[in-house]
């Protein structure tokens, strides 16, 4: 299937989002360390860096037309897999100021559109 301009734009926007998020895991790891569920083994920083590497790799896979379908499918799975970190962030911020709490709670419903976006990119890549 010949990609249309809007399909390519959507895939590249998703890749850009993943890449930017991945880079922030290395540039400012502290906030990510704080939301790593403590039930995970090892140090939070290791999980922060691992998820940053995953996001950068997913960005590259989604950006390349040959790997876009698989990359987008894996991105959808990744977005679902990090949902517990967003739940932890919301729980940890329940007693904070309203703007901070709103940001933490606002992340929760955003995961579903991200999963659906990645799946749409996958469908259009096939």
UniProtKB/TrEMBL annotation:
Record field: transmembrane: 71-91
Domain of life the protein comes from: Bacteria
Keywords per UniProt: Membrane, Transmembrane, Transmembrane helix
Protein name: Putative membrane protein
Natural source organism: Saccharothrix australiensis
Lineage of producing organism: Bacteria, Bacillati, Actinomycetota, Actinomycetes, Pseudonocardiales
């Amino acid at each position: 299937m010949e990609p249309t301009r809007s399909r390519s734009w959507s895939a590249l926007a998703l890749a850009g989002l993943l890449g930017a998020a991945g880079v922030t895991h290395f540039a400012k790891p502290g906030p990510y360390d704080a939301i790593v569920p403590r039930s995970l083994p090892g140090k939070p920083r290791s999980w922060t860096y691992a998820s940053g590497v995953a996001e950068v790799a997913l960005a590259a896979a989604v950006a390349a037309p040959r790997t876009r379908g698989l990359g987008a499918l894996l991105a959808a799975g990744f977005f679902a897999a990090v949902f517990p970190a967003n739940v932890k962030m919301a729980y940890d911020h329940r007693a904070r100021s309203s703007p901070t709490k709103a940001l933490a709670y606002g992340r929760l419903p955003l995961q579903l559109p991200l999963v659906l976006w990645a799946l749409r990119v996958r469908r259009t890549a096939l």
